Amino acid sequence: MNSVRGFLAASVISIQNSCFVYPACQKCFSRLILDSRRFNCLKCGCTGEAKDANYRYRLSLKIADTNDLFDITVFGSCLDPFFGITAENLHRCIQDFNQLSGETNPDASPGVLVQAVETCFIGKRFIFGV
Fold this sequence. Notes:
The chain is built from 3 helices and 8 strands. The protein is an alpha+beta fold. The protein has a domain at 7-20 and 56-129. The relative contact order is 0.24.
């Protein structure tokens, strides 16, 4: 793996996914496998009760600089200022909204949230650490 790090100034062309939070392992930040009662991290073996799972931001974007297109994923609390709340609290809001609206997938992002994220990011220029 290339260990060179740098900055990339680029504009967001599109949002690549509509699920902006994921259940994350507290130790290694990998996606947790959840069932109705337990969670399990396949990477480090961490386990616990599903109700105690932590959530983390994951925003997949297609971006463009002056020469190239890139697929990039932004993780973690650096997205808190854009959403205005932590990933944990956003996950709770999504679940509450879905329960009230009768959505069968409790983790599905409401369309209005997807539109707000698109409005916030698409066409805007950011500096990404890569």
